[in-house]
Amino acid sequence: MTTAPTPVPTPAAVDTNGGGGTPGTATPATPAAPTAIRRRRGGRAWLGALPLLVFFAIGFGLPAVAIAIGAFTTSSDAPGGGGHFTMANLSDSLQGAYLTALLGSVKLSALTALIGTAIGLPLAQAVATSRFKFVRETVLAGSGVLANFGGVPLAFMFVATLGNAGEVTTSLGLKDYGWSLYTFNGLAVVYLYFLIPLMILTITPALEGLRVQWREAAYNNGATVFQYWRHVALPVLLPSLLGGYVLLFGASFAAYATAEAMVGSSIPLISMQIGDALSGNVLVGQGNLALALGLDMIVVACLVMAIYLPLQRRSAKWLSS
Amino acid sequence: MNRLRLGRGLVLLLCGVYFFVPLGASLYFSIDDHHGNVAFNAYTSLLSAPGFLDALYLSLELAAATVVLLLVLLVPALLAARLGAPKLRPVIEVVCSMPLVVPVVALTTGIVGVLRWGPDYLANTPIFQTFVAIQNPNFPVVLLIAYVLMALPFAYRALDGGLRSVDVVTLVEAARSCGASWPRAVFSVVLPNLRSALLSASVLTVALVLGEFTTASILGFQPFSVWINAYGKTDGQMSVAVSILSLLIVWVVLLLLSVLGGRTRKAARS
């Protein structure tokens, strides 16, 4: 995954057919009491999920353990030998160039998420209310591609477009205005190319949940378009919008491929620093620094999710009622 | 109302310009020979570019393996949660959502950490051979594991959505009452009903694997996206050509899928 996940609206908590036992599905040969059937089939059902749980425990659990242990111990090439408890990795990861990178990532993410939300909302509204099914399908499929697949191809397309020898740069003479793609602002422009589609994907279900009747009622009572949005639509959309903002923040924060392919580590970003550290570009004895940086990143991402999930649940409640 | 429609059209137009300018400019860049002529060298010489086919094969193999492993793990788990153990559902939902919370770069640091245990602590044990084997550059199992984890949330949402629209319990009951065995009930009754969900989970996974860069690049393998990046440093024009092609192909596939999916849904309703 190069960028962020496609958000899918949280499923409503209603369970149409899973809840409770399912008496009557037993093999005809065993006329046992329903509870006994349920218990026995429940036992077998656990086995169906076992491979997934085992895979997850190994594939996800071991790396998590590695981060948790590694971030707080000295690495094996350290002078005193590896495996000793230390806070040095973590404190190093929050100092100097690494702190700059963390703050740079947060700043870039906050800014691009804000712009992405502001542009994505009217765009999604235009798409959601479009009369042409083809336009909707094309835009949504395209958004799916750009939001999830982007990454390296995106970087090259922007180099070809707005890079030093890019078509648009040369034909408009943008260099004379001081434009450079390989800066903070240039990176922000590129990030918007996958963040706006992500916003469209996130907010479209919520926009489709806005009832036509609400708008008609507002207009019948003499409200202007502005008043309808100010007093009806935006308050209902607010949780979804905030959720979308947070999701965009997370996507931008976690992005690695685009920046790596385009600017390398010349712009301080936490994901670039981790990539560098993992490639061995750190001092001897600081191998575990990368794990500490990873831990920093997970903490920020968890904070983001802690804000996002309740918001998502709240907006789902609003729009499904 | 007319003014609204005009505004909507204007918004879509601006969005179109913003999104098509880079595409168009890249296209022009890839066929412009810098002497004012048009040349398709970047596209025609693609197949003979060093490493292109190897990287593409590796990516396709990984994508196929990821889809298979993902479905083998996920479908039984979801069916089990529906049919017999409803208490499993929240567990599975949490498990499938966890990879969303952890940024891919951070997951990769964890994987690198685990892989380092091999030479550091396990060098004289048989487990070390496993560590070597899963890092075989011809088919890196470690990437397969990472990709299944990354694709888990999408595939889960797609399959869960599909299961939601089908009454699996009744279907299985009916099949079992008619004397079908468990495997037969699943393979010839349940799975055909989930066709579009399975298809969209698979396509999302393939798109994700083909585009994945972070983990493969940090771990030092060279599937398609890493190759584009490496080769782009030497032949800019060709890398842009590949980028456009790969984006367009995935776009068309997703578009076809949504059109087909929409059609079957409508047909089922009427």
From TrEMBL, chain A:
Transmembrane regions: 45-72, 108-127, 139-162, 182-207, 236-259, 289-311
Residue spans of biased composition, Low complexity class: 24-34
GO cellular component annotations of the record: plasma membrane
Compartment annotation: Cell membrane
Gene Ontology biological process terms from the UniProt entry: transmembrane transport
Bilayer topology annotation: Multi-pass membrane protein
All copies of domain ABC transmembrane type-1, residue ranges: 102-308
Amino acid composition bias (Pro residues), ranges on this chain: 1-10
Region of interest: Disordered: 1-34
Record keywords, A-Z: Cell membrane, Membrane, Transmembrane, Transmembrane helix, Transport
InterPro entries (UniProt xref): MetI-like, MetI-like_sf
Family the UniProt entry places it in: Belongs to the binding-protein-dependent transport system permease family. CysTW subfamily.
Name of this protein: ABC transporter permease subunit
Organism: Kitasatospora acidiphila
Automatic annotation (TrEMBL), chain B:
Keywords, in A-Z order: Cell inner membrane, Cell membrane, Membrane, Transmembrane, Transmembrane helix, Transport
Superkingdom, taxonomy of origin: Bacteria
Listed GO CC annotations: plasma membrane
UniProt cross-references to InterPro entries, sorted A to Z: MetI-like, MetI-like_sf
Principal location listed in the UniProt entry: membrane
Span of domain ABC transmembrane type-1: 56-257
Location within or outside the cell: Cell inner membrane; Cell membrane
Protein name: ABC transporter permease subunit
Organism: Kitasatospora acidiphila
